[in-house]
């Protein structure tokens, strides 16, 4: 009895200290962000020149500690994990990494990073770089030579990648565009000019004006719709959903939703209710988009470097937009804010960057009509209703609509819609018949070529199917010939059967899909159904997976080697979350998913992570101009022998 009383007192103390709905993976609060900033500024770094905050997030607590604390058994609860923040700042031309203990208000770790790559750019750096060409005399002369008005010019800084240089600096190349009344800035490039800028010194270090091309017409490039949004509502169930702090409960699901400057929306500790035992069972510890890779397929001087890794170079969360009712989310969606650190380390509120709503798929989760019961026609089914967590990130010309969709059948559907405007280059061609050279894209309008490119979104999926000890099983479909017709009394000559292979090491966990019929399952070998099947979840891609076509010795591919396989399985390590490495800008491929996987660690009956690439080879078409209709990709994680029967019947 005394133990139970003490446990209750402890829980009440936690509720008072952290709030009733505290979760160890809660994002840093504005107060914690500001406290972290204050501690850093009071340290020796506060006296250094140009102190700038590039990363400020929760230091990932120990996973086992988090799971113990979330245990439903109060007597076994340890103290809550210590709240610590991980900080990356630039000061005095160096990158500093710090870990701050928010309980003791002390710096527990501080070091100077000396490896390859740089932290993400801040928006103030990009803004200043965008204005620099407008006061640079050679650029002003180039604009005058083209008979353009410099007050109508907008410049956009692009990251530059890495191409074998032994020494690199924080650098961007600015491309410039001529508005002249147009709001679709990307459709009117001033071709032939490249402005290279050192971001630390904020100076132009190289300038090139190689040729002139006619400006694409501003007429017909307006992306704004003439139609009013149509009111719609998706709150279609009897129960609705509850948001308790960062915890969400809906139907048979409970999970934690967070928001960070780098990943944007994060889903954690997702568990589904077993309809028989009435207990929640673990499915996924952590899930988010880990990195993007967008290489353009134009090798010319003005374009070759455009091979963007947006999450590491800019940040998905930092690029999240204020969601609009009736455009992004239904009328009765719940909207959530996020908080990030600004360049000066102070907390910035990002309003309505996530929304949560119930969705009616206007189909059936299941249905059946039975006509073989004498005198009856029996029809039964259930509407396809799900819960969606949504975020939209706008990175330059592209908009990414990211959805996490939870279904009552125990599945998690993960989707992304690509839209926005194309990145184009100016040309003298006005008709396809005139083209006699490789233009590396499609003529989508007069004087306008949309360049071929790829999109890859790499998802980090720390699945914990009924616990930490999981394995990858490849269920391969193999053709078998019927050889003994007399025994089977069959006139069939063939059938297919399933041959299961369990991956032993990370080398086995690098999987190409499409060459043979196979289903990939994450199973818990220690958990079985009552009739003896191993419980698991299977991966269902929504279209044929896309992998990189770049050669392995091409520098962008060296940096983004994780795009060579659609599926990777690695051993869990809490520091391994960013597929392109922690420092993506100007990285050299010596950190990240491909490097971690090459260690070839054991992954059978271990705590493992699945990485899945949603990829697109984008050949532009005229219908993509002046604004691109959404292009969808995604995958589903679906229970496979996880339940005793269909959980919708329960």
TrEMBL record:
<dbReference type="GO" id="GO:0005507">
    <property type="term" value="F:copper ion binding"/>
</dbReference>
<protein>
    <recommendedName>
        <fullName>Amine oxidase</fullName>
        <ecNumber>1.4.3.-</ecNumber>
    </recommendedName>
</protein>
<feature type="active site" description="Proton acceptor">
    <location>
        <position position="310"/>
    </location>
</feature>
<dbReference type="InterPro" id="IPR015800">
    <property type="entry name" value="Cu_amine_oxidase_N2"/>
</dbReference>
<keyword id="KW-0732">Signal</keyword>
<comment type="subunit">
    <text>Homodimer.</text>
</comment>
<dbReference type="InterPro" id="IPR000269">
    <property type="entry name" value="Cu_amine_oxidase"/>
</dbReference>
<keyword id="KW-0479">Metal-binding</keyword>
<dbReference type="Pfam" id="PF02728">
    <property type="entry name" value="Cu_amine_oxidN3"/>
</dbReference>
<dbReference type="GO" id="GO:0009308">
    <property type="term" value="P:amine metabolic process"/>
</dbReference>
<feature type="domain" description="Copper amine oxidase catalytic">
    <location>
        <begin position="239"/>
        <end position="648"/>
    </location>
</feature>
<dbReference type="InterPro" id="IPR015802">
    <property type="entry name" value="Cu_amine_oxidase_N3"/>
</dbReference>
<feature type="domain" description="Copper amine oxidase N3-terminal">
    <location>
        <begin position="119"/>
        <end position="211"/>
    </location>
</feature>
<keyword id="KW-0560">Oxidoreductase</keyword>
<dbReference type="GO" id="GO:0008131">
    <property type="term" value="F:primary methylamine oxidase activity"/>
</dbReference>
<keyword id="KW-0186">Copper</keyword>
<keyword id="KW-0801">TPQ</keyword>
<dbReference type="Pfam" id="PF02727">
    <property type="entry name" value="Cu_amine_oxidN2"/>
</dbReference>
<feature type="domain" description="Copper amine oxidase N2-terminal">
    <location>
        <begin position="23"/>
        <end position="112"/>
    </location>
</feature>
<comment type="similarity">
    <text>Belongs to the copper/topaquinone oxidase family.</text>
</comment>
<dbReference type="InterPro" id="IPR015798">
    <property type="entry name" value="Cu_amine_oxidase_C"/>
</dbReference>
<feature type="modified residue" description="2',4',5'-topaquinone">
    <location>
        <position position="398"/>
    </location>
</feature>
<dbReference type="Pfam" id="PF01179">
    <property type="entry name" value="Cu_amine_oxid"/>
</dbReference>
<dbReference type="GO" id="GO:0009753">
    <property type="term" value="P:response to jasmonic acid"/>
</dbReference>
<dbReference type="GO" id="GO:0048038">
    <property type="term" value="F:quinone binding"/>
</dbReference>
<feature type="active site" description="Schiff-base intermediate with substrate; via topaquinone">
    <location>
        <position position="398"/>
    </location>
</feature>
<keyword id="KW-1015">Disulfide bond</keyword>
<dbReference type="InterPro" id="IPR049948">
    <property type="entry name" value="Cu_Am_ox_TPQ-bd"/>
</dbReference>
<feature type="signal peptide">
    <location>
        <begin position="1"/>
        <end position="19"/>
    </location>
</feature>
<keyword id="KW-0464">Manganese</keyword>
